[in-house]
Amino acid sequence: MIVCFTLWAHSVNADDAPLILNDGSKVYNPAQRAFFFADDHNTISIDDILQNRLEEKFIPITNKVPTFGLNNTPVWIRFDIASQLPEDFFLLIENPSLSSVDFFLVDASGIMINHVSTGSYQPIDVRAVKTANFYFDLQLKDSQVYTCYLKVRTSVSSMQIPMQIATMKHFYEQKHRVTLWQGLYFGLFVFMFIYNAFLFYSLRDTSYLYFASFIFFMGLMFAAVRGFGLEYLWSSNPFLNELVPVYGSLAGISVILFTARFLHSEMNTPKLHLWLIAIISLFVLNIIVFLTGWRFLAYQIILYNAAVTLFFIMFVALKVWLNGYEPAKYYLFAWSFFVAGIIAFFLRELGFLPINAILGNVLQIASTVSILFMSFALSRKINIYIESRNQAKELALQAALENERLISNQNQLLEARVTQRTIDL
Q: Which of 78, 100, 152, 155 is the most buried (most CB within 10 A)?
């Protein structure tokens, strides 16, 4: 993916002028004046770059958000910057899943004056700014032109490096809005988890247990990806934030078990049911791959597994619906949103779609809509269950009345025979 990006980037003229910060109320995007270099062998140090051995290898970034697809090759980013204001400006990298981020600030004479090393491995408590995203104090003075270098690497996400430069006041206001949205989202997930767990406890139908498990593991996965977990749930144990492939695999296993139970695939489509259960082994294998240390490979596998699984369960649902099982159509409708979200997310992770406010949260939006509609489908299933139970009760009552009538007729017949025998005697 980086090779393709490199070829495309060569056709764009670079703007070598430094980024000038002259408005304290403005948010700057340094990617518009940044250059990048892919360290394919992970052998380049900041000293190599400062000695001007590799400057010619840097090529301009063409996206508003530097995106390099599914690649764990370290990427160096460089941009020049100067401030004309007394305010302190910070550089924000808004991707908590990046494994390591090294920030270097170099003055006009080529001397490195600041170096900060961080990443998803680092607990919140020891960071300069205690948040899941990465903030760097630029420490710009006297309108001098400085050069910023970033070395970024990832192991459990795609290589996306959204960057912003602004004052901390602006970032605080922005974070407040994001936290509100994320709070509503995770609040909904918690509510749906409790709701389905309660239904399982009340009805003893395992489909609700599997659906609650799916919601739980999806919530953990999004909490890790968005930094919510690292910031509020496991701030002192960042390893839990790297378990994205494990959370995703457990969510995949849960949704397969839920699908089999909800659609009664074992009875309605026995052959497809066997294939459905067999897919579980792919997710189990992915967990094993992650635990053996191949984290980036596990992340790649989970993306492909998720795509294959969603399309297959949609096919199973279609088959079951065509066989006459009515709840399957609600299942198809609900998961169609998730499939669309997975496709958009997959293309975004590969670098084919740009990152914006919608695509940046596409999987969260799609999963929320799907879970809500699937809850309606489960409610419809409850109605069908109640209707079936009422019909069974009505049939049982009719059978009891008919049985009572037959017994009454039989008693009357016996009485008549006894009477007749008495008369005969």
A: 152
Nearest to 133 by CA among 390, 368, 360: 360
Structure tokens at 120: 């998803």
Q: Is the pLDDT of residue 1 over 90?
A: no
Helix (H) or strand (E) holding 417: helix 362-424
pLDDT digits (tens, 9 = 90+) for 170-183: 888 777 777 777 77
Q: Residue 318 contacts by C-beta under 8 Å, 6 or more apart in sequence?
A: 328, 332
**Structure token digits, residue 24:** 């304290």
Q: Measure CA 199 to chain center.
A: 25
Distance CA 118, CA 126 (A): 10
**Are residues 65 and 351 in contact, defined by beta-carbon separation less than 8 angstroms?**
no
Q: For tokens 């032109």, name the residue.
A: 145
Name, in order, each residue with C-beta under 8 angstroms of 317's C-beta and a sequence gap of 6 or more.
259, 263, 328, 331, 332, 335
177: its two tokens: 């809005």
Task: Fill in the amino acid letter for 271.
Answer: K
Q: For residue range 24-49, list pLDDT tens digits in order.
A: 888 999 988 899 988 888 888 888 88
Closest by CA position to 236, among listed 121, 93, 157: 121
- Cβ neighbours of residue 159 closer than 8 Å, sequence gap 6 or more: 2, 67, 68, 69, 70, 71, 72, 73, 75, 152
Q: What DSSP character marks residue 350?
A: T
Give CA–CA dist 136/127, Å, rounded: 10
Q: pTM of the predicted model, to two decimals?
A: 0.76
| Cα–Cα distances in angstroms (integers) from residue 90 to residues 108, 137, 140, 163, 190, in the given order | 19, 5, 10, 10, 34
How far is Cα 240 from Cα 232, in angstroms, rounded to an integer? 12
What does the chain come to in residues? 425
Distance, in Å, from the CA atom of 357 to the CA atom of 178, rounded to the nearest integer, reads 11
Tokens matching residue 219? 């919530």
Q: Closest by alpha carbon to 150, among 124, 116, 113? A: 116
Specify the DSSP class assigned to residue 28.
Answer: B
Is 27 within 8 Å of 91 (Cβ atoms)? no
Q: Look-up: residue for tokens 């593991």?
A: 217
Measured CA distances, 76 to 59, 229, 352 (Å): 10, 28, 21
Cα-Cα end-to-end distance for the chain:
107
Across residues 294-320, what is the average pLDDT? 88
User: Considering only CA atoms, which of 94, 100, 102, 107 is closest in space to residue 67?
Assistant: 94
